[in-house]
User: Which sequence fits this backbone?
């Protein structure tokens, strides 16, 4: 005997003590799937036969069962379950978690039960207990379906029990194995002409008039329901869809109008209104010989339709009225009702229609949900959901969503076939529904411990204490969140150098990349400025339409921690205007077919942003040394002249004074007066993203070429091209040439260079490779580690630094930053983008030496 059970279900084993339930469970289910009442008694009392622990044991059992069902895991309850009061909470659990309950009854002979229990020394109860179990079981068997069990299987002999095989079948809603591509079509409502035009536009064709539509590339149409009512050709729509479904070139979920028609065709009492009268009249106009079979056929077809589909490994959900995350892939009357009708608030609007709860505004699921039911003027995305019922029958259009392309294809209605009970909606806004919704961000999305899925590094965890620190920064200091689509990662230095007098040297950077299997790197001059992200829109209208920014701004410059770079708005605007002129002059907008772009840049001088830091920290150290050390040296020289043995101390202080002078010279390279925009230098080095693309598939050389085009189009000398040096790793001459370049540059007071694999995203022997390694010069590191860090005793200690945590941090931030950009380009909700941006900022509070 084969017992088919849904792969997601609550299986209840029913039988008296001695029925062999435990053995049956061990044979057919995983140990983790089985919840035994005896085991739960032992868990709470150390005695699986303790009668006074029964109440606590079942509380534990029900709790664990609930947690498993919440995670959509098959759960098997191994207990006697012969009494209604024992089964009732299990049925309630199945209803709460919207899964089918299955009863497997072991209805063997009482003599066998008694014999088995007599052989168990731990069972001390009398024969009357088995007898009572048996009587309760016999009373229950015929009532199990009425209690709510979806499937009931009764095994009446040991031979039947031994011959059983369990076959797990997916729920009808589970079509995760279907990957498409799909063309999801909105509410048709009898508009057959428009449906035929739309299928033609989507590339579907018929071999003959009675043949199903098929697509030459194997695409599958998915209908969101409401095939009938109000429109002129309801029977034609039904026949077209049925032929496609039967030919497996289409899937279809039912709509509320379809279900109402089914009930009417089955003779049930329904209110003939809202277009049903049109469909029924069309059917009744047929000849009797055709009409009656058609009624049965239509009713059976609609009755077989499944409430919703979960497709493409769970990435796509299609339901007529949409579906909350907690209902997806589940099966219950509540799930079916939500899929058909959505959720109402209990209120009635001025048109006499129920007010629907906007479940999509609260949706946080990973699966894309495509639905119809509520006609809208234009299909729009909201929190990874989209309503594609664009009111064709009301004179709007019939719309399809191509998946996974996320492209909308529509054909206009030939005419108005019916007047809507309520207007289709307000006039289109200059901001999308998603942008309007994003005006208020939810604290719950960024609070507490976060787990963020990234393409490059899988799931990344943000600790609660780090999230709290990031929340403080974002809430108090951040720029307008609508601009914050990316934060750049930190950079790790190379391993410490062993060369005399140096803490960092290019050779260690080259060694790292070579070891990871990288064959070519690009060395870029490290500028004496501050990291800046520039988001530029072609016009303020673009900023409003694409970013939802309504202030009239067309761009922004912000820091790597998400703060506005400039406290001086006119200065920022002037800089953006210069960049826009260069983008116009270079033909950037046409080349990339975009109206916006995001650049990763260095903005100079450092003093433009870090003036206060320079004055309070660096200048203060230099001034203190300049004031304190000369008098000390004078005293030591006097003591030395008097014969005191202080020569070593004098030399030490002289060296400190010389180091302090070098220290002041080093940080002064980063300072110059900025009175007007022409005093700034902007060096873009990454064109990160533009409409429809994140440019991480291009090499760093390509990025530099795009920057070069902008620099050439800039006649103000504000835009600055970064000097680069390509290196073939393993070629000693090539490596030495780059080392010589670095040496000459740092000798002139330059900061150093950044070494990057030629590919923007590189994978090596251990996975993702560092996106960049900074190699700073000896004099610049004086600013970081202190004026006299090069003294041997200090340098030896600093060389013990461990860059492992810094490298880990850099990789995680790199993955999060690019994930944010990719989500924005895919037009995901701002909360999804900000989850990643927020993650970068949170990681910045990890305890990593900030000098690295």
Assistant:
């Amino acid at each position: 005997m084969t017992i088919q059970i849904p792969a997601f279900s609550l299986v209840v084993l029913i039988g008296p003590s001695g029925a062999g339930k435990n053995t049956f469970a061990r044979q057919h289910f995983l140990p983790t799937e089985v919840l035994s009442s005896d085991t739960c008694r032992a868990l709470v009392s150390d005695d699986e036969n303790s009668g006074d622990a029964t109440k606590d044991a079942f509380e534990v059992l029900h709790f664990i069962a609930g947690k498993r069902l919440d995670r959509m895991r098959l759960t098997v309850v191994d207990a006697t379950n012969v009494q209604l009061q024992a089964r009732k909470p299990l049925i309630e659990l199945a209803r709460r978690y919207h899964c089918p309950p299955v009863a497997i009854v072991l209805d063997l002979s009482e003599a066998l039960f008694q014999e088995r229990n007599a052989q168990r020394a731990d069972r001390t109860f009398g024969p009357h207990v088995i007898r009572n179990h048996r009587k309760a079981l016999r009373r229950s068997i015929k009532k199990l379906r009425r209690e709510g069990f979806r499937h009931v299987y009764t095994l009446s002999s040991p031979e039947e029990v031994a011959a059983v095989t369990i076959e797990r079948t997916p729920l009808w809603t589970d079509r995760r194995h279907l990957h498409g591509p799909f063309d999801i079509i909105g509410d048709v409502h009898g508009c057959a002409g428009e449906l035929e035009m739309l299928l033609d536009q989507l590339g579907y064709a018929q071999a003959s008039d009675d043949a199903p539509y098929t697509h030459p590339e194997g695409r599958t149409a998915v209908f969101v329901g409401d095939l009938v009512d109000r429109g002129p050709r309801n029977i034609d729509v039904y026949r077209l869809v049925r032929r496609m479904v039967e030919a497996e070139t289409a899937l279809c979920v039912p709509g509320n109008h379809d279900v109402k028609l089914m009930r009417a065709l089955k003779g049930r009492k329904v209110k003939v209104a809202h277009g049903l009268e049109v469909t029924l009249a069309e059917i009744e106009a047929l000849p009797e010989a055709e009409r009656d079979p058609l009624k049965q056929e239509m009713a059976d077809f609609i009755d077989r339709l499944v409430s919703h589909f979960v497709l493409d490994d769970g990435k796509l959900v299609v339901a007529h009225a949409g579906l909350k995350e907690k209902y997806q892939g589940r099966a219950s009357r509540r799930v079916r009702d939500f899929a058909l009708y959505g959720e109402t608030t209990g209120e009635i609007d001025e048109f006499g229609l129920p007010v629907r709860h906007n479940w999509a505004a609260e949706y946080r699921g990973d699966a894309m949900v495509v639905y119809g039911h509520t006609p809208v003027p234009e299909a729009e995305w909201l929190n990874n959901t989209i309503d594609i019922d664009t009111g064709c029958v009301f004179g709007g259009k019939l719309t399809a969503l191509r998946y996974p392309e996320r492209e909308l294809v529509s054909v206009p209605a030939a005419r108005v076939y019916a007047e809507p009970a309520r207007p289709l909606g307000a006039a289109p806004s200059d901001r999308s529904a998603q942008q309007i919704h994003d005006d208020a961000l939810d604290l719950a999305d960024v609070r507490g411990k976060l787990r963020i899925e990234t393409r490059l590094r899988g799931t990344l965890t943000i600790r609660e204490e780090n999230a709290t620190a990031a929340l403080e920064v974002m809430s108090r200091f951040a720029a307008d969140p609508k601009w914050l689509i990316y934060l750049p990662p930190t950079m790790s230095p190379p391993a410490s150098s062993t060369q005399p007098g140096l803490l960092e040297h290019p050779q260690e950077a080259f060694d790292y990349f070579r070891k990871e299997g990288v064959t070519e790197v690009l060395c870029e001059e490290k500028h004496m400025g501050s990291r800046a992200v520039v988001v530029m829109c072609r016009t303020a209208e673009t900023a409003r339409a694409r970013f939802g920014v309504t202030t009239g701004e067309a761009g922004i410059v912000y820091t790597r921690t998400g703060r506005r770079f400039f406290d001086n708005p006119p200065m920022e605007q002037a800089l953006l205007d210069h960049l826009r002129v260069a983008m116009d002059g270079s033909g950037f907008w046409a080349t990339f077919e975009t109206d916006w772009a995001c650049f990763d840049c260095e903005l100079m001088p450092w003093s433009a942003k870090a003036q206060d830091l320079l004055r309070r920290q660096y200048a203060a150290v230099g001034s203190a040394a300049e004031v304190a050390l000369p008098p000390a040296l004078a005293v030591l020289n006097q003591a030395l002249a008097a014969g005191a043995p202080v020569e070593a101390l004098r030399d030490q202080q002289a060296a400190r004074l010389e180091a302090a002078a070098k220290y002041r010279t080093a940080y002064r390279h980063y300072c110059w007066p900025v009175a007007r925009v022409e005093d700034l230098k902007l060096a873009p080095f990454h064109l990160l993203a533009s409409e429809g693309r994140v440019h991480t598939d291009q090499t760093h050389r390509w990025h530099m070429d795009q920057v070069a085009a902008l620099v050439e189009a800039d006649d103000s000398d504000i835009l600055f091209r970064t000097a680069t040096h390509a290196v073939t790793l393993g070629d000693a001459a090539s490596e030495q040439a780059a080392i010589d370049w670095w040496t000459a540059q740092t000798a002139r007071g330059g900061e150093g260079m950044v070494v990057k694999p030629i590919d923007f995203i590189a994978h090596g022997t251990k996975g993702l490779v560092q996106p960049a390694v900074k190699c700073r010069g000896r004099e610049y590191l004086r600013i970081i580690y202190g004026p006299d860090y090069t003294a041997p005793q200090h340098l030896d200690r600093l060389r013990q630094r461990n860059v492992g945590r810094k490298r880990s941090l850099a990789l995680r931030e790199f993955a999060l930053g690019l994930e944010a950009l990719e989500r924005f380009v895919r037009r995901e909700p701002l909360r999804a983008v900000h989850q990643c941006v927020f993650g970068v900022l949170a990681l910045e509070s990890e305890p990593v030496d900030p000098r690295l």
Observations:
- The radius of gyration is 36 Å.
- Residues 607-641 form the longest helix (35 residues).
